[in-house]
Amino acid sequence: MTDKKEPVSLPDPRTFSIDIDFKQSPERVWQALTDPTEISRWFSNNAEVEPTEGGQFEMTWDVEGWGFRTRVATWKPNQHLGLIEEKDHQGQKVVLAMDYYLEGRNGGTTLRLVHSGFGRDEDWDQEFSGISRGWPYELRVLRHYLDHHPDTPRHLRLVTHHTDLAPRDAFSRVFGPKGLAKNGGVHALSEGDSFRLEVGPQEVYAGKVFLVNPPRSWAGTLNGPYGGLLRFEMEADIVVLSLARWGGNANEVNQFADVWQQRLAELL
């Protein structure tokens, strides 16, 4: 019989933390963080939550292998949500922690996220870099949802493609004249600037730059009857292009995914 190895914490771990302010109360922010329906309106496509310490807390996307499968370590409504994730690293089970701390302040809420437990060796660099770029975007999406689209269902599709291109080359191709910018572009724009991408007469994306971190990531809010977000992200050798819309039906995002799955293969 083989003894089951208990997960371990790595020595001298790395930690990522971020604070973000919300206009809403801690109760409302807590609901958005922990209610499965709410989670699907700003974060993952799907969520399952057992609202108790020791319960399962799972968030998954409609892409194979994408998700957080965690257990609840701390459940203090409106104050502190602590999640534990066990990962295999070089044959050893290690523990990562995600802690959300909520504090009422000036009629709103300050949320602090602390994601900890990452090793300092180069095998962890890619994952740590990814979450360091990803969390600022995702939490700003949460704020955007609560400010502009509360209680509104979201349709989200992600398109992924492997590439051997360097991030700068991949970014330039996706946002070049053969990609999203037959007319228009985003290369010289900063956060808050207006942008317009005309792929064709029936495919136009326009709005405000939401987040800029080239060449690894870019995102913009979208004009139109239903608010949305267009996002480019490159993680290691995988390019991710996503479209989200709040309200309406899923036709536009489904068509986007069908078209751009093929276009990314041609571009990259």
Automatic annotation (TrEMBL):
- What range(s) does the Activator of Hsp90 ATPase homologue 1/2-like C-terminal domain occupy? 25-146
Where on the tree of life does the source sit, at the highest rank? Bacteria
UniProt similarity note:
Belongs to the AHA1 family.
| This protein's name | SRPBCC domain-containing protein
